[in-house]
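Lecture 7, part B: from sequences to assemblies.

Below are the input chains for today's worked example.
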Amino acid sequence: METAIHHGAMFDTNELVLNMGPQHPSTHGVLRVVLRLDGEKVVDADVVIGYLHRGIEKLSENRNWTQIILLTDRMDYVAAATNNVGYCETVEKLMSLEVPRRARYVRTILCELQRIASHCLWIGTHAMDIGAMTVFLYAFRERELILDLFEEFCGARLTYNSMRIGGLPLDIPPGWDKKVLEFCTIMDSKIGEYEELLTHNRIWLERTKGIGVISGPDAVALGLSGPPLRGSGVAKDVRKDEPYAAYDEMEFDVPIGTAGDTYDRYLVRLEEFRQSLRIIRQATEGLPEGPIVGKVPRLIKPPAGETYHAIESPKGELGYFIVSDGKSTNPYRFRVRPPSFCNLQGLRTLVRGHLVADVVALIGSLDVVLGEVDR
Amino acid sequence: MPGSVAHVSYWVGDWTIVVPVDKLIAAGRHLRDAPDALFDFCSDVTATDWPPRADGRFDVVYCLFSTRLRHRIRIKVKAAEHQPVPSVCDLWPAANWLEREVYDMFGVNLTGHPDRRRILMPEDWQGFPERKDYPLEGPGELLMENPLDWLKLRQAREEADIE
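Predicted structure of the full complex, as structure tokens:
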């Protein structure tokens, strides 16, 4: 508003409506943002979603409990294993199933590998949006190593279908745990490379510091979760608050930021790389022997009831709300609380008053995956 | 608050309270502000459709979390098809898009919402896809062009199935 008054006498300050997307390389999929501009300043933004809506919730209500695991892969397709874990644990909670300790450990390893892979994709695309091309090539080099590990574990590189209700479909291949530890050693040195490229880079600092500042209480009220919330200094992490898989036996820290801007969200994710490696090392070295599947009935048919179960996906709190009627072999109601959806809701608040170029940086810093936003 | 909670249940580790529609805002405000509750984070708003039920067709479900005390609770409200349900956007701004999705998918009559538009489906879409009586295959292209033709086609198909 200040600019409008300032230039009022000399320039025509009509508002300009600029449509960004849905086909735009830096919206990470098919996101449309309708910006109302005053000069180059964003006055208001309307975020339009739904271009990738496939009706996964409705579809799941017409599939049986095992078939749904495959559908959950298709939501956050850069972190498919995390989605599988969340769904399987929700059904296990409904059925009060006990999962063997070895399966819980392997799940923890897979979740954390997935977090690193997802963050690699994020740092690569986020930096490229802002103009740093090199980081993209570096990050995808490491992501490739994780995809190879997943390929060896379950045969797929992107949509894993790597969990079963009550445990895992297969035990880890021989020598896989050694390869995971080797990867940890490689990754440790590579995080330093990303830091060298970005953390003290003057262009990076100019483009991220003080951009999209949100305070802790505001972020909580807006429903942000994951790194965008922790960047504002709220230590909310489902892994600590309500431990699932084997996180209660792991030692790790939850990094939090102070300023709540794009730069702090970047620092939080960078530290999460290190904490994930710490968890992977602990889980791989302490991997217990034993069965990989619990006592699961042949026909999966949870008793009538409903539950909400949340896990910490790389993007934030991924929750499943499932209602079973106890009679049929498919869920009566299947609902996903996608972290990207709720984080994207905050975009409107974040972009106000910034420049058009910062919108790109802010979409990147929220780390949304449109497959999950629209389902 | 006497009379504002109709039912409390605990199952597989989850607490649920059932609240009458007219007490929703008061109960929500109490849960958000009371020092031993402090549910400041609205995780999820969703609905469940139970078409044959006598006391209201929809369950509107609010999943809450406290970032300070780290506990969860679910509020549940039973609503009939056209019965107004007050929006909780004033209590938790996070509910904005979540409630838009509930409106888009179920057609729950949310009142007082600052921006009640469809969110995932196109704005001129007919019907509410997540309802139990909505066909799984959807109407396809035909509905967008001519809803009446689509209805006729569906009836013809159903008759063919019966024969």
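Note for the exam: Residues 1-5 of chain A have pLDDT under 50 and may be disordered. Keep this in mind when comparing with the next example.
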